[in-house]
Design a protein that fits this description.
Its main location: membrane. It is found in: Membrane. The protein is an alpha+beta fold and 180 residues long. 27% of the residues are buried. Bound molecules: adenosine-5'-diphosphate and magnesium ion.
């Protein structure tokens, strides 16, 4: 198998991120930050990529939500979900992001339209190296590590992540964090 240096670098980085998140000895360093602003910034940096692919984009971000967590990890989780939403969207599809507070929890969802994940694949989707429908995903060039990193990361932060399918071809990933 041939692998380009960019892909190799990304693979190594992903493996290191996963190892770090799964290593209980590595400390998570929490401090308060405005997650509404952080998610907004990541959207600004990734929106162009979505538009380049002909995807439209909508967002519903509740302003001023402060959480006590590790900002870089939260950013990374959101980037993984946004990246997947772009990669696995139908042509001319739409991506929707929402961020909201519910009592002492903060919920962030990323939704796209496309081929949904088969029911039998749903429990495996967060496993390392797992890719549903490899024939279709081969061209997208990942190694099936994104969601494993997202899950290990959110668990380190004391939160949770889940996925939902709707029959109308919508896939929604949601991660939940406490606000303190
Ligand atoms: N938004 C999505 N819509 C449909 N399938 C998805 C979505 N996000 C992830 N998947 C499926 O989950 C698999 C694992 O995702 P991930 O761990 O990010 O790895 P990668 O993107 O490298 O394949 C993908 O290969 C794809 O089959
Ligand atoms: Mg991915």
């Amino acid at each position: 198998m041939k692998i380009g240096t960019d892909r190799m670098a990304k693979l190594i980085n992903d493996l290191l991120s996963l190892a770090r998140m799964e290593n209980a000895n590595v400390q998570v360093i929490k401090s308060p930050f405005n997650i509404s602003e952080v998610i907004g910034e990541v959207i600004l940096s990734m929106e162009a990529l979505a538009k380049e692919r002909g995807l439209s984009f909508s967002q519903s971000i509740e302003p001023g939500i402060i959480i006590n967590s590790e900002m870089e990890i939260v950013k990374k989780i959101f980037m993984i979900l946004f990246d997947n939403a772009i990669k696995y969207s139908d042509a001319n599809g739409k991506i929707s992001v929402s961020l909201r507070r519910d009592k002492h929890r903060v919920l962030c969802s990323v939704q796209n339209r496309g081929k949904t994940i088969a029911e039998e694949d749903l429990p495996k989707i967060f496993d390392r190296f797992y890719r549903a429908d490899p024939s279709r995903t081969a061209e997208n060039g990942g190694y099936g590590l994104g969601l494993a990193i997202a899950k290990a990361s959110i668990e380190r932060l004391g939160g949770n992540i889940y996925v939902e399918n709707t029959p109308r071809g919508l896939t929604t990933f949601t991660f939940i964090l406490g606000d303190s």
